[in-house]
């Protein structure tokens, strides 16, 4: 989290010096909530002042402005919800791909282990049988 201290342009730098061989996946998100929250608080204070100071014929205009403010607030929150859902879908897709690749590796090594287990079982049976075979020749 970074709180901007000065107005202006900011740059993001992602460093890959730790390992240039392995693959990396980077997610980042830009949120501009603090400025919006402050505006909502200021608008709420202004709306209360206008309601108290409004004359009866101006009450209808104030109500329309309140409705417009409510709609704008709702629109901002819906946009934020869409942004969060998009981010969650990206995380879910990344995690699903990781799980599918892990499933492939687990299945491969399970098959290898099963094959080794079967070969060792046959070798043990063969060795045990060879121990009990009578190799002497019988003369009659």
From TrEMBL:
SUPFAM superfamilies in the record: Supernatant protein factor (SPF), C-terminal domain
UniProt keyword terms in alphabetical order: Endoplasmic reticulum, Membrane, Signal, Transmembrane, Transmembrane helix
Every GOLD domain range: 1-32
InterPro entries membership: Emp24-like (IPR015720), GOLD_dom (IPR009038), GOLD_dom_sf (IPR036598)
Q: What is this protein called?
A: TMED1 protein
Location of the protein in the cell: Endoplasmic reticulum membrane; Endoplasmic reticulum-Golgi intermediate compartment membrane; Golgi apparatus, cis-Golgi network membrane; Membrane
PANTHER family according to UniProt: TRANSMEMBRANE EMP24 DOMAIN-CONTAINING PROTEIN
* GO CC field: endoplasmic reticulum membrane; endoplasmic reticulum-Golgi intermediate compartment membrane; Golgi apparatus
């Amino acid at each position: 989290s970074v709180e901007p201290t000065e107005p202006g342009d900011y740059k993001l730098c992602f460093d890959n010096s730790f390992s240039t061989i392995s693959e990396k996946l980077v997610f980042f998100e830009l949120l501009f909530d603090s400025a919006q929250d402050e505006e909502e608080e200021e608008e709420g204070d202004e709306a209360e002042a206008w309601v108290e100071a409004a004359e009866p014929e101006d009450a209808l205009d104030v109500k329309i402005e309140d409705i417009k403010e409510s709609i704008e607030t709702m629109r901002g929150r819906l946009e934020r919800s869409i942004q969060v859902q998009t981010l969650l879908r990206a995380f879910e897709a990344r995690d699903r791909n990781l799980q599918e690749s892990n499933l492939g590796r687990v299945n491969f090594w399970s098959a290898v282990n099963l094959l080794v287990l079967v070969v060792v079982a046959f070798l043990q049976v063969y060795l045990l049988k060879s121990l009990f075979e009578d190799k002497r020749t019988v003369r009659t």
